[in-house]
Write a structure and sequence with these properties.
The protein is of the alpha+beta class and about 80 residues long. The protein is built from 2 helices and 5 strands. A 5-stranded mixed β-sheet has the order 4-3-2-1-5.
Length: about 80
């Protein structure tokens, strides 16, 4: 099973107030499908945008062969620079 670390939309669609979860998910699963593990969150509606990623969990998935999307890679690199 190929695993991707990508974003999953969450929030209130009625108010168009979306935030995103960073998740480990099977490559074949739909964007809002069943996840293997939640790794963090990203909320672009706040000024400035807030995000939090559990780097230990992400690194565990990367060691097991998971691949990150470009957007998640950018947020992950920002998180690592902050520490």
């Amino acid at each position: 099973m190929e695993v991707k670390i990508r974003m999953q939309r969450a929030g209130d669609p009625a108010q168009k107030n979306y935030n995103w979860r960073i998740v480990a998910i099977s490559k074949c699963t739909a964007r809002d499908g069943k996840v293997l593990e939640i790794l963090g969150h990203y909320d672009p509606s706040k000024k400035p945008a807030t995000y939090k990623i559990d780097t230990a969990k992400v690194e565990k998935w990367l060691k097991n062969g998971a691949q990150m999307t470009d957007t998640v890679r950018t947020l992950f690199n920002k998180t690592k620079k902050q520490k």
